[in-house]
Structure formats: C-alpha cells, structure tokens
Specification:
Chain lengths: ~130, ~130, ~130, ~130
C-alpha cells in the first residue's frame, strides 16, 4: 500500500484488528492512549534534542528510518484513539484545518509565526475581518 | 469527506497547501514539528490528567469535541512532518505494525500488556520462535 | 548529602559546574532544555503507561530505582534551565504555590479535582472571595 | 526565601502540606503526577515552539515570567512525586549526576553533544577506561 491508495479507514481497521486479536482494548483506553502518543512524541523529539532547527532539516538515512518509526508509532496510537472514541479522523482534521485557515489568514500571516491573538487584535482595532 | 473516502495523500496535500500558502516551511522544520506534536499530545493528555483510566472511557460530548481537536492537531503536525521528510505514512505505519505483530504475537500476549523483552526471554529459553 | 541538608543553590552550582566543564552551555539553551525536560518526563510516564492509577501506587523496588532516575533527569535539566535563565527556583516555586493556594482554596476544593474556572464561577456568582 | 537559604526538604514539606490540606493525595498518584509533569513540560516548550535555538537565548521580560511559572509547575509536581514515592531528591539527583560524569567524561565530550554509545565504543576499542 501507499498514501495515495490507502484511506484513513483502511488504517483504522488494521489497527482495530491488531488491538482486538490481542484483547488489548482494556489497555487502549483514552487516558493510556493519550500518554502513549506523548511518549512516542518525546522519542521523536529525542532525534532533534541537541540539533539546531536548521540542522534538523538534513538528516542521515539511518536517522530518517528511526524517525519514521517514531512517527509511525504516533499515528498508530492516534488511530487507536480515534477507534476508541469512534471519531472520524478526516472530519476532525478538516474541521480543525478550516479553523486554522480562519485563525491564520494567509495574507496576514505569510512568512510570520505569530499566534492567533496578535491577529485578533488587528481585527478588533479596525473593525473589519480580513 | 470522511475516513472511508479519504486517502492519506489527500490529507497530506491539504496540509502542504496550507503551509505553502503561508510560507511556513521555514517554521515547519523537523525539530519544530516534533516539538509541536509533543505540545499537542500534552494538551490531549490534559483532558485525562486527574481521571482514572476507567473514567476516561466515558466522556461528555463537549469534552469529546475538544479531545477531537487535540487529536486533529496531532495528526495535522504529523502530516506536515511526513511532508517535510518526504515519508510515505502508510508504508511506515504498516512496516511498524508488521514489526509489532512479530514482537507481540497474539497467542502470547492476549490480554496482557507485557513489553517485548518478556517474550524475547521466552523465545530464547526454549529455542523455538512462536 | 540529602534533602534536609541541601539547598537549591547547592544543586544549581553542581549542575553549572557539570555543564561548564563540558563546554555544554551552547547546547543547554532554553529551547533544547525545554525539549529535554519533556523527553525525560515521557520516559518517566513510560513506567506507568499501561497501569491503572491505583496500580501505579505500588511499585516494585527495581522499578522505583528507574523511576527515581527519570525524576532526577527532570530535576537536572530544570536546574540547568534555571541557571540558563538566571531564575531563583525557590522564589518562582513559592510564587506559583501562592497563586495555587489562591486559585484552589482548601475549603472549596478539598477532595475534588476541579479546575480553576469552576471555582471562579462560584466566586462570581455570590460576590465574595473566599 | 531563595535558593541559597532553602533546602529541598523545605520545598517538599510545603508541597506535602498543600496537597494534604486539599485531600489531594488521591489524585497525586505516580501515574497522574508523571502526566502532570509532561503536561507542564509541554507548556514550557510552547514558549520556544517556533524560535531558533539561538533566539531562545534572548527572551523579553514578560516571557521570562511565564516561562518561570511553567518551570515552577514542573518542579512543583516533581516535589509531589518525590513525596509520593518517598524519594530523597538530592540523593537521586547526585547519583544520576555521578553516572553522567562517568558516561560523559569532560575530557572526551568537551564541546560536543555525542550520546553515550559513541564514547563507549572508544572505550571498547582500546581497552582502557578514561
């Protein structure tokens, strides 16, 4: 398989099967899964712990392989959490992206990493919404 | 859209477009993205901070909505990282799941949450691989 | 040494010496140290990943030793960050504790794990501050 | 108080008193405390999320105040965990620092951020321990 041929549902089903075959629903509760995602996220960060932001952009092949594994773990636990909460990941992701598009209109934020409140202030001060 | 009609590539492309329109590639470097995933993972955990594992299984609707947003953020940054590293998420996820299937054979682990080494010891002690 | 004979300054100085002898100030920047604390915090969480909250209260001796090491790492990086930012840890901790005492007055929160806003609403509704 | 006049025990006692007055021992279990430290560590990281490592070294005063608060929260939960596990923080910190001094001898690592294994290989290849 690969990304252009695989749906979110395909991956969610594989994960549900993996968990079910092992009778692991009892461990894959929301609290434990949230901890698991955070744990894997930290293992991912470890690869960049002492690098400058720039250096993190050019990584050797073997590091890339390990990094891919940590990212896979993050996605794997996220899939399990979506299953546990019966969430449609696509719908929640697209809804959040729509919210981000509103929060960070491209003409206002291009090239800058300001947080939402900065732009909210701009909106309030002159009354128009861009 | 929804999970059974959306491919990983669909979501990766939407994320790439969002980042590109804002000239945010400069901020969406691997180091920063790994921090971002960890930050969102912690915001997700906050919903379960003081709950028992059992209580985390029955959540009110408004909490479910917020939790969905945090999970969306985790997936959103994961998509951006996959783009930044030019990783096929499906391939990496399936490869890691195959590794987990080998590490945690269902007949050995059903119902138990032991780590890999426990089962490795079992393999070593009697010489056969199950 | 031990806790009743050791000041925060004693520990901060030992950490400063360790970092300086290795010419590691260049790596112990606030961004990297914040990542390091989060990484160690996740290694600590891993010990409790699949346990119920109750089970986490009774741990075997060897687990306790490993857990102590992760907690030590968290404190070690926190000391280095306090040095890097020239922060008096005692002052910041006591200031935050004073804020928490105000946010969570014991007569209101005893036995309950409500967040601040719940009590703020109580204050607003009857006008008095307890 | 301040760092040169305050012992670890002073802070642990204040924290124990705060928790006890609120009958919060039931929530301050090791699992929950480990999550809490990770949550606060992520709030700390958020201040540096999009900054370069260099930029994180020069922060405005109001940011410094918020950062101090997050660091205080990390230390506060660490104190509570030390109390819950009846750990002497000084002993565990000094033991881990001694281990780090052995792992990362200053003459070998000065100026470099290599991980332990690199130096272990050096030790193994020529048989002597430096």
């Amino acid at each position: 398989m690969s990304d252009d041929r695989t749906t979110l549902q395909d991956l969610k089903e594989k994960m549900a099967q993996f968990v079910h075959e092992r009778d692991w629903e009892q461990f894959h509760t929301p609290k434990n899964l949230s901890m698991s995602i955070a744990i894997e996220a930290a293992e991912l960060m470890e690869h960049f712990q002492w690098l400058t932001v720039e250096a993190s952009k050019t990584l050797p092949l073997d590091a890339l392989s390990d990094i891919g594994e940590e990212l896979a773990d993050i996605v794997i636990y996220s899939l399990s959490l979506a299953n546990a909460l019966q969430l449609d990941l696509t719908d929640t992701v697209l809804a959040k992206m729509a919210k981000n598009i509103r929060k960070y209109p491209s003409e206002k934020v291009r090239g800058k990493s300001h947080k939402y409140t900065h732009y909210l202030q701009d909106r309030e001060s002159d009354g128009t919404e861009r």
